[in-house]
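Report of the visiting student (M.T.), summer placement. My assignment was to run the structure pipeline on a short list of targets and document each run. The first record concerns UPF0102 protein OEZ71_05760.
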Amino acid sequence: MTGAMAHAAGMAAEDQVEAHYMRSGRTVAARRWRGKAGEIDLILRDGSGLIFVEVKRAKTHRLAAERLSTRQIQRIRAAASEFVAAEPAGQDSEMRFDVALLDAAGQIEIVENALGP
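After the run finished, the structure tokens were exported:
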């Protein structure tokens, strides 16, 4: 897949995941939020809590999950720490880390707390 096609596919996947979360009552706090540590695909508000979401797309959910590296997990956690620094509760903010997996058919599988508490 070319760079432009991959970018468009990634944006479409994030759109689908965002719509999925919004149907369940969550609101978007940020999309493609970038801090010094890196980028977070989606940040959603769930009541007073936050959900940090990494979106992965591949032919199958299993292949999508395999694309999440240890380095990415560390980057997401560090970026989330930067984001919550500006929240009223700071580092004590209620939060979780989800991974949203999309397969070639557009089916979404959300793995809640995929990166641990």
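The chain is about 35% helix and 30% strand. The chain has a mean pLDDT of 92. I thank the supervising group for their guidance throughout the placement.
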